[in-house]
Amino acid sequence: MTSAANGRIDWVDTAKGFCIIFVVMMHSTIGVEIAAGEPGWMGAIVAFAKPFRMPDFFMISGLFLGLVIDRPWRSYLDRKVVHFAYFYVLWLTIQFAVKAPVMAGEIGWAGVAGQYLLAYVQPFGTLWFIYMLPVMFVITKALHRSGLPWYLVLGAAALLQIAPIHTGSVLIDEFASRYVFFYCGYIFAARAFALADWARHHLPLAFAGLLAWGLVNGGLVFTGHSEWPVISLALGGAGALAVIVVSALLTQLGVSAPLRHCGENSIVVYLAFFFPMAATRIILLKTGIIPDVGWISLIVTAAGVIAPLVLWWLIQRTGLGTFLFVRPAWARLSGTGAGRTQPQAAE
Q: Residue 9 pairs with which residues in a beta bridge?
């Protein structure tokens, strides 16, 4: 297992880096293609990553749950619920403050207020992931304390993913679709770490396995079968494991630093990518400096990833705006410790 000097695990942060870049890429590419009215070559990459993009994010989020799941409820809720609630409320308010004038012109100020309040039960836009994680953390701890056998929970979660659940509720639909991957990260964490260690010591076999996975994943995606029941579940799990292997290999080869940095600050990118992404898209499409939709999508993706990291670098240097990415001490349940000085995607 390769560990960074600060105690973080290199391949895990690298995997998080993959996850957050794929998420930004998806939003950037789809936004550009819709605004431009035509597809671009980046769309093929987004389509290839769709089966495993969010499954991997949820699986990685569950990897370290076993270390804290037995903590007292108060401490657990502070780190797994209040932590994310703080960022959700803060960035929901920021996004609405920016969008409110335009929204008011379409639905009126009363409509804006109604949509803001609705966002507390129907997760808003790109923030749905940090809304969903606390739900999964609480449910998993409750299931753990109930003594229900893990294989029964896993089977039920798999059935939820396979079932055609489309209620219109982001909370219900996304939970049904994603919980199995989060739970797998929790119960199979030791095997995930073993897989990463195996890949680091068996590079030729690991590369061969990735090639086979890539051909199967791509074949099913581009023939239109990737979203079929059972197949989507299998591709999600296989893709998540593939990202773990890729991350371990890049770490072993010593070329994972950029991805690892993105992963270490994934909460920063996730919370703030919307603004530079939208601004860059508008500027490039309005000016027409770059005619190719694919290249526009790539540049918008890069802006969405890099700009938040630059913002966080400036905040660290000036000490201004730290509250944007680090939960302050006042936003903690009393008696659970002092606030952190570094952004934490999942404390």
A: 3
Which tokens hold the place of 58? Answer: 């949820």
DSSP annotation of 338: P
**Is the whole-model pTM more than 0.85?**
yes
> What was the pLDDT predicted at 270?
97
pLDDT at 346 (0 to 100): 43
Quickly list H helices, the chain.
10-36, 42-62, 73-77, 83-118, 128-146, 150-162, 170-187, 189-201, 203-222, 231-253, 257-264, 266-272, 274-287, 293-318
Q: What is the DSSP letter of 342?
A: S
What's the confidence (pLDDT) of residue 7? 64
d(CA 46, CA 257): 23
Q: Which residues of the chain have pLDDT under 70?
A: 1-7, 335-347
The maximal CA–CA distance of the chain, rounded, in angstroms, is: 61
Q: How far is CA 126 from CA 111, 187, 256, in A?
A: 20, 27, 26
Asked if 239 contacts 56 with a C-beta cutoff of 8 angstroms, the reply is yes
20 SS3 class: helix
